[in-house]
Specification:
alpha/beta
């Protein structure tokens, strides 16, 4: 493990105007950059103050010295905020041709018409499209970009934003996020309302050497039910980029929220996110994720089960190829009686890639009758790849049940020989084995996402057997 010194702060480099009076971005981070960012966005004073407090915390926090080697990440060289270059649009027809083609290639406009209750599109940290079908808006559902939410629902945002769920002091990257966040999506579902179609957000990193910091805030009020889907991609460049998002989910009593994400990053992205849920009595949170691409990943979605009968389900599959190190996992803290958690993590490593599971299950003093089950399975496609597991189980109450199991293995020659004897080529046999391995996760994804994740994994697997 490499030890990395704390990142130094760049000299003041505010967002300036060029010769034509247009705003342009500058590299690095400073009080001046953050103040200018907040001013450009027209934010209320409380948000500007929160950004500056987050910067102070960021300056004090060290970069993690465990997990992937982050010594190559120089925040002074990254553009942490780019002023908006496009407006906001009420119709897909109004979106500029280049952006529109990207969204159409992903099938998002068609999905909105046929399968979704609403869509938010974010391009280079700025919202360019947000839409919610009228029948859902009439039920009091709020779904828009975070920028819009701050201007339209400031009291609601201020109550939840980076206070109790993911405070800036949680880690260095949550503090950085609190200082320079931009873009993202906001969901509020009123009491007793059940959203029968998913809500979807799509985030696109477009520039070289950029940092993106979308913030997702989901509030499921008492007895409500919502399914939120998030997709993230980036272009490929020869310089490092960074994605450091924060997701905060509040599941109130008797409510249910499912958060689904499929991320397909280019191989020059540092993906360093903080995602967490607070679940009240008899509430349920479900995390379903697929992680493709990226250079280094640190991601550990967390669930805090605060009320009796609360439940958390974590399902994730990740793939690491050559030059990729993913340190992922889950954290569940049981703080009330009769709570339940299930963690299923599937990982595939190939061509020397490294996949790691780092998880925590904590049974608090007041967790009598609670149950937790952890299963992490690693599949290595060759002899040079690696799969690691670091489980952490803390039990402070004797009247709980906790189970943990882990398996790591390679595709065996016997399996390939057997499949070959049935007429399958080596690549076809490997693809079938991989599909069966990840099926417990993909079956929980919407069909189009499951198909896309399978396709991406098969592309990664080409030529991996050896």
């Amino acid at each position: 493990m490499a030890t990395v010194e704390s990142t130094k702060i760049a000299k003041p480099s505010p967002i300036l105007e060029d010769d034509q009076g247009q705003l342009r971005a500058r590299q690095g981070i400073s009080r001046e950059v953050i103040s200018e960012l907040s001013k450009i966005k027209g934010e209320p004073d409380w948000m500007a103050e929160k950004r500056l407090r987050s910067l102070e915390i960021f300056e004090r926090k060290p970069i993690p010295n465990w997990g992937p080697d982050l010594s190559g990440l120089d925040l002074d060289e990254l553009v942490l905020y780019s002023p908006p270059t496009a407006g906001r649009y009420n119709s897909w027809d109004e979106v500029p041709a280049e952006m529109k083609q990207t969204y159409e290639d992903l099938g998002i406009p068609q999905a909105e018409r046929e399968h979704l209750a609403g869509v938010v599109g974010v391009w280079r940290q700025e919202p360019v499209y947000e839409g919610l079908k009228e029948e859902y808006a009439k039920q009091g559902i709020l779904f828009c970009s975070m920028d819009t939410a701050i201007s339209r629902y400031p009291e609601l945002v201020q109550k939840y934003f980076m206070n109790k769920c993911v405070p800036p002091q949680d880690n260095k990257f949550s503090a950085l996020h609190g200082a320079v966040w931009s873009g993202g999506s906001f969901v509020y579902v009123p009491k007793g309302v059940k959203v029968d179609l998913p809500l979807q957000a799509y985030f696109r990193m477009e520039g070289a050497g950029e940092g993106t910091f979308e913030h997702t805030l989901i509030i499921a009020d008492e007895g409500s039910d919502v399914n939120y889907i998030e997709g993230c991609t980036a272009q490929t460049y020869s310089v490092n980029s960074m994605h450091s998002a924060v997701v905060e989910i509040f599941v109130h009593e008797g409510a249910k929220a499912r958060y689904t994400t499929v991320q397909n990053w280019s191989k020059d992205v540092y993906n360093l996110n903080t995602k967490r849920a607070i679940v009240d009595a008899n509430g349920t949170v479900e995390w379903v994720g697929g992680s493709m691409g990226a250079k280094y990943v640190m991601l550990y979605p967390g669930s805090f089960l605060m009320g009796e009968g609360a439940r958390a389900d974590h399902l994730n599959v990740g793939v690491a190829g050559r030059g990729v190190h993913k340190d992922t996992g889950a954290k569940v803290v049981h703080l009330a009686p009769n709570t339940t958690s299930n963690i299923l993590a599937k990982s595939i490593s190939k061509d020397g890639g490294i996949m790691g599971y780092r998880g925590l299950v904590k049974m608090g003093h007041n967790s009598a009758g609670s149950k937790a089950r952890v299963q992490c399975d690693g599949l290595m496609m060759d002899g040079e790849s690696r799969s690691d597991t670091w489980p952490d189980i803390q039990i402070q109450n004797p009247h709980v049940t906790v189970a943990h199991e882990a398996t790591v293995g390679r595709i065996s020659d016997d399996q390939l020989f057997y499949m070959g004897s049935r007429g399958f080529t080596e690549d076809e046999a490997a693809a079938m084995i991989v599909n069966g391995f990840i099926e417990p996760v993909t079956k929980e994804l919407p069909m189009e996402y499951a198909v896309e994740l399978n396709r991406l994994i098969q592309l990664e697997m080409v030529g991996s057997i050896g």
